[in-house]
Write a structure and sequence with these properties.
mainly alpha; about 0% strand
């Protein structure tokens, strides 16, 4: 899973059982590949979640504003009819 970027050597104390499980689940040939794939998946999931939250905030804001305007309009119409 070479990315063409420079690599740095890091030393971590990790649970070997988790590494083996990740290696098996991700179908990675080596522990390093499993860790790289897991990090890549975590980064892409974070990006997806961030985009989903941003889209949801826009939708909820627009939807809430639209519902409020519709409710006000209906109230005004019913008050006008009663007068």
């Amino acid at each position: 899973m070479a990315t063409g970027r420079a690599r740095s050597h890091k030393h971590f104390r990790l649970d070997p059982v988790k590494i083996k499980r990740a290696q098996k689940v991700l179908g990675a040939g080596t522990e390093t590949e499993a860790i790289e794939r897991a990090l890549g998946l975590m980064i892409s999931e974070h990006k997806r979640n961030r985009l989903a939250v941003e889209a949801n905030e826009r939708f909820v804001t627009v939807e809430s504003t639209s519902r409020t305007r519709t409710a006000l309009w209906r109230t005004r119409c019913s008050v006008t009819r009663l007068s």
